[in-house]
Amino acid sequence: MTADIQRLNRRLASAQPSATYRIIDRVAERRAQGAQIISLCAGEPDFDTPEHVRAAAFQAIEQGHTRYTQVAGVRSLREAVAAKFRRENALDVSWQDTLVCNGGKQVIYNALAATLNEGDQVIVPAPYWVSYPEIVQLCGGEPHIVTCDAASGFKLTAQLLAAAITPQTRWLILNSPSNPTGAVYSRDELRELADVLLAHPHVLILADDIYEHLIFDDQWFYTLAQVEPRLAARTLTMNGVSKAYAMTGWRIGFATGPRWLLQAMETLQGQQTSGACAVSQQAALAALEGPKDFIHASRAAFQRRRDLMVERLNAIGLECFSPAGAFYAFASCASLIGRTSLAGRVLHTDEDVALALLDEANVAVVQGSAFGLGPYLRIAYALDERSLHKACEAISGFCQAVC
Ligand code: PLP
Fold it and tell me: What is the pTM of this model?
């Protein structure tokens, strides 16, 4: 066997294994050794899928929804998705303007794989969800990272956007509420970005609204195509049931956008996974058409946890602003950099801080640099309040012992 047999696709070969996996692998390793780790790394709600959704899935199996479906999704779900976009986002869509995929992630992958060619650039505001630059790269494009620091609330501004657009720009990715910062774009902020985008008709926009319903303090959620309908013809508005209905494992995401794009994405998906899981599609239908009390309850729980975490983290000296959405706090660990932990480690980077916290305080968080901006820690508060208090005690002890 020659060494050549193991030659990989060159794009895959240059893909970086996600920095978040290093922490997650280490958590698994430490737990296997018997350590009691509180993990604040999760990218998913800790609640169970609502009961009526689970019941709908059982019923779907009994009723024989166990076969292949249309690639773009079953008509009833596509109608419910269109109704959701009309009702919640004021987007003028019919069921033919929708596509159902295996999770929000496949929506993003399909869209980029269907449209990127060598040399195409994708503007990715940082801090970003780790998968964006990797997917862009795997699809043959070039991520154009635009750093959005704490001064702008970790949000892209019109000035930064205008400076980033080039003739090679194919896409802009906008994520609100944001993973990893929880930042939410207001209507006015989207309006300013829309004004820049109107002047650049060659740019497509991906609005990743997956955390739409996890938004606090009675704020309203807005999506770009709603704020500026003239951009709808080149905006892919993406969403799903993963975060809103605690259905991460069911793998249902969906989108609306221009039909030429949805058709290309459908063609790609048809040769890849085919339609999404038939049972999950029925479950997603029940979620979209059913009562919304689950959303209200989980939003209230996350808001309480956010308040608890933001107060404790700031008191500890890990500065963070109060995020308006999602379930992440993005806390600065600048005050720890260059100092030495109790076990004698010099904390050169935020990754050193995250690893030391794990090893010395048994709390797992992810370093901000994994999301394109350091020195920060992304602290997911998708955990019960007792565990969050315990985690804060441990983090506090760790920080006090650093010298
Ligand atoms: N977009 C963002 C910002 C996310 O954080 C995630 C999941 O963590 C996704 C998309 C993908 O969601 P799904 O589980 O529906 O694939």
Answer: 0.97
